[in-house]
Amino acid sequence: MKYFDELKRSMEYLAGDPRTVFIGQAVAVPGTAMSNTLKDIPGHRLLELPVAEEMQMGMTTGLALAGQIPVSIFPRWNFLLCGLSQLINHLDKVQVMSNGGFKTKAIVRTGIGAERPLHPQHQHVGDYTQAIQAMCSTIEVIRLDEPEDIFPAYQRALLRDDGRSTLLVEYGDYYSEK
């Protein structure tokens, strides 16, 4: 099994649930390596957004509160940094702030930017997994190191019934290397 193939299989699995909606930049149009994992997802399930990461994460929380399962895609950690207020102060804390009255389930997908064959410079290759993990009290952060980690992690994120969201971290270099 290959890293990219497992990601594509996982996205198709998620799309099998009628509650999922895929949102972000380059989800309905090509533009990133992650776009290629969505090319067989029906177009009506893909919500293309402008470059507005804080708005995207706010929409993610809203969709989750409305009972949908957003798969919110930020191609690189460095982009997700712009949505951290919404991630840390809202999505992560909604269950705590509501004394368990609201439970949200969102799937947030991000990546450590590929450095090979061309290094895109440091604003695209950050890995903030440990820092974000330390800031989250309810969101589970999972780093996808090996191809065999991918499908079970996305399956767990979809099937979980504990009212928690999941943030999955991919490696851009592994799309073609593993």
UniProtKB/TrEMBL annotation:
<keyword id="KW-0670">Pyruvate</keyword>
<protein>
    <submittedName>
        <fullName>Pyruvate/2-oxoglutarate/acetoin dehydrogenase E1 component</fullName>
    </submittedName>
</protein>
<feature type="domain" description="Transketolase-like pyrimidine-binding">
    <location>
        <begin position="1"/>
        <end position="176"/>
    </location>
</feature>
<dbReference type="InterPro" id="IPR029061">
    <property type="entry name" value="THDP-binding"/>
</dbReference>
<dbReference type="Pfam" id="PF02779">
    <property type="entry name" value="Transket_pyr"/>
</dbReference>
<dbReference type="InterPro" id="IPR005475">
    <property type="entry name" value="Transketolase-like_Pyr-bd"/>
</dbReference>
